[in-house]
Design goal:
Largest interface: A-B, 36 and 24 residues
Order of helices and strands of chain B: HHHHHHHEHEEEHHEH
Number of domains of chain B: 2
Strand content of chain A: 25-35%
Helix content of chain A: 25-40%
Structural class of chain A: alpha/beta
Strand content of chain B: 5-15%
CATH superfamily of the largest domain in chain A: P-loop containing nucleotide triphosphate hydrolases
Radius of gyration of chain A: 22 Å
Strand order of the largest sheet of chain B: 1-5-4
Largest sheet of chain A: 6 strands, mixed
Radius of gyration of chain B: 26 Å
CATH class of the largest domain in chain A: Alpha Beta
Oligomer: heterodimer
Chain lengths: 305, 334
């Protein structure tokens, strides 16, 4: 993959999008290097679609700076050619046949790779003569993916690609997606409200909750930085300043904390356990949801016992 | 992008052709029919005193049908604006397909520009064909009637229908872009365009060129040709040969003041008896007062100037709207 240029795949500073009074995305700062498969995870309504629609230029930010592959989103035709986007619920033209869609791709994209498109359409078993309006959700997603990928973009963006698919179609879609990414040598960003959708494929993670980026980074770094501390109840109340508590739970005897430490964890007298990606994401989501610690954690405590 | 425009437009284009074909056939038939009738009446003109009568009968035979056709032609631009213009962007926004097509390697502005040109020229071609046929079909009638500026006929001959179609189409497209919903955009398009088509001949067209003003003496003979005189000294139905009368003043006295209501009233209700008696008395009574009116009119020789000015006005408006749409789509639409 040619990466002589130093621009990142996605770079945001203070990126904000407001719809009237509703804040869809607030003060978002990101610097995602190229060559990554990025998982964008967060609950429904967290602002994932807003961020991705901003990234492909469908909407414009209210404030802040956003660069995609070094340029403002959808800056010009050449830049549009470098970014492939598969929108939520994978829109296609209902009256167009599959072949019409490929023809559209060929006519509207100078960098269109017809053999790649043909090969992939054959591989997923789509009938060229079929009207797109009569395709199943999974087939439609495959078609949208092929159109986005056959223009050979440097960056592929998927907004909840698997949300509407049954498990089998989802599996086929994700596999196809990863083959495309590998074949094109492209970067990719996938959003989902379920970590399990993207966990398998992504090596970079962004957790977006309540319109804000909670945490972002390489998966391996995130796993190295997050720990679970278990100590007798009350002993975790005074932790060193460099230890950031993401989530604290108490049972009758024990306190359990998911913490983030930038460097090495200071020596502690308590038991330190590794944290799974899922638990880490859940901790951030819980913190962002702002649910009163007493209530949820009391319930969590019940569950632990 | 041209292939894309055509692929998305072809069903609508087919519907348009299917709808236009019978109209075109009927216009052809009417044109031939009018020519035959014209020749028939013309042959009566060999006897000089029957010619006027024959031509007036010829006009009576075709007046209603041509008025109906002119009305149909006035509707065509509105239909194009509603069915070709309003859905052009609104349907994409409604079905979410703009998220597919705007992420191909074509900027939104170019996407819209090609569509506007492609479907816009198709709309103008439809109007041009219909206008050409009707102008041809009605030409013997128009030559006889000399009413070139009649509101419906003026907008249904020669250039103006083409410019109307261009504006109606762009108007529909831009309304669709702003409203983002096809059906409400269609409704607003028809409303806005109808309003414009009502205002244009009544409020704007008379002033496109500085009218010629003449003073016309209101002799008893001149008064007898009028359709009526109001008690407030207004004059109805004053005509000038080979011209479009755009404004008539009240009945004025020699000093230029409107004649006072009581005098008119006297002449209208209790005119002094003359030898003839009856209706002739009012005209005679007013004619004796040495009255005159000021008349504004546009001579028929200005017909082509008006056609060009009004067409240019509509095309410029369409251009401005298209420019606004192109600016808007890049900046504000998601």
């Amino acid at each position: 993959m040619p990466q002589e240029n130093s621009y990142p795949a996605l770079q945001a500073e203070g990126l904000t999008k407001q719809y009237g009074k509703r804040l869809a995305l607030a003060d978002c700062n990101l610097n995602v290097p190229r060559g990554r498969v990025v998982g964008l995870v967060g609950p429904n309504g967290a602002g994932k679609s807003t961020l991705l629609n901003l990234a492909c230029g469908l909407i414009t930010p209210t404030a802040g700076m956003l660069r995609v592959l070094g340029s403002p989103p959808a800056a010009n035709a050449a830049h549009l050619a470098k970014v492939g986007f598969v929108a939520q619920d994978t829109p296609v033209y209902g009256t167009f046949t599959v072949a019409d869609h490929l023809r559209m791709g060929a006519k509207l994209n100078p960098s269109w790779d017809q053999s790649l498109a043909d090969r992939r359409i054959a591989q997923v078993g789509l009938n060229l003569k079929q009207k797109a309006g009569r395709l199943s959700g999974g087939q439609r997603a495959q078609l949208a993916l092929t159109i986005a990928a056959a223009k050979r973009p440097e960056l592929l963006i998927f907004d909840e690609p698997a949300a509407a698919l049954d498990p089998l179609a989802r599996d086929g879609f994700m596999q196809n997606l990863m083959e495309f990414v590998a074949e094109l040598g492209a970067s990719a960003i996938l959003s989902s409200h379920l970590l399990s959708d993207v966990e398998r494929v992504c090596d970079y993670l962004i957790v977006l909750c309540a319109s804000r980026v909670q945490v972002a980074g390489e998966v391996k770094d995130l796993l190295a930085q997050h720990h679970r501390l278990v100590a007798p109840r009350g002993e975790l109340d005074r932790l060193p300043a460099e230890v950031e508590v993401i989530r604290m739970q108490h049972t009758d005897q024990y306190s359990r904390a998911v913490v983030r430490v930038a460097g090495a964890l200071p020596r502690t007298p308590w038991s330190v356990e590794p944290v799974s990606l899922e638990e880490m994401v859940l901790s951030y989501m819980t913190r962002a949801a702002g649910v009163s610690a007493g209530l949820t954690d009391a319930m969590a405590g019940e569950a632990v016992r | 992008m041209i292939w894309m425009s055509w692929r998305q437009f072809r069903t609508q284009a087919l519907v348009g052709v299917v709808a236009l074909a019978p109209l075109a056939a009927y216009l052809l038939f009417t044109g031939l029919d009018i020519r035959q009738a014209y020749d028939r009446y013309q042959s009566r003109c060999e006897v000089a005193d029957r010619c006027l009568d024959a031509m007036s009968q010829f006009q009576d035979d075709y007046r209603t049908r041509l008025l109906f056709l002119a009305l149909l032609l006035a509707i065509i631009p509105a239909v194009l604006g509603v069915f070709w213009g309003a859905p052009l962007i609104a349907r994409e926004l409604e079905s979410g397909t703009q998220r597919l097509v705007w992420n191909q390697s074509v900027t939104r502005r170019r996407w819209l520009a090609v569509k506007l040109l492609f479907v816009g020229f198709a709309s103008m071609a439809v109007a041009a064909l219909a206008s050409l046929l009707l102008t041809w079909a009605a030409s013997p009638y128009d030559k006889v009637s000399g009413e070139r500026f009649a509101a419906l006929a003026f907008g249904a001959r020669n250039l103006t229908p083409i410019a109307y179609a261009a504006l109606a189409f762009v108007l529909g497209t831009v309304i669709g872009l702003l409203m983002r919903k096809t059906v409400p955009a269609m409704a607003l398009t028809i409303l806005a365009f109808t309003l414009l088509q009502f205002l244009m001949p009544n409020m704007v067209r008379p002033h496109l060129m500085e009218p010629v003003t003449v003073t016309k003496a209101m002799t008893a003979d001149a008064l007898r040709e009028l359709r009526g005189v109001g008690t407030d000294a207004t004059v109805k139905g004053l005509s000038i040969p080979n011209a479009w009368v755009t404004g008539t003043s009240k009945l004025l006295t020699a000093s230029g003041q409107p004649v006072d209501a009581r005098t008119i009233d006297t002449c209208l209700t209790k005119p002094p008896q003359t030898a003839g008696g009856g209706a002739g008395d009012t005209a005679g009574c007013l004619g004796d007062l040495n009255l005159h009116v000021k008349v504004d009119y546009q001579p028929n020789s200005r017909y082509w100037s008006f056609q060009w000015i009004e067409s240019a006005f509509y095309l410029a408006l369409a251009g401005l709207l298209a420019g606004f749409g192109l600016w808007r789509i890049q900046r504000h639409v998601s």
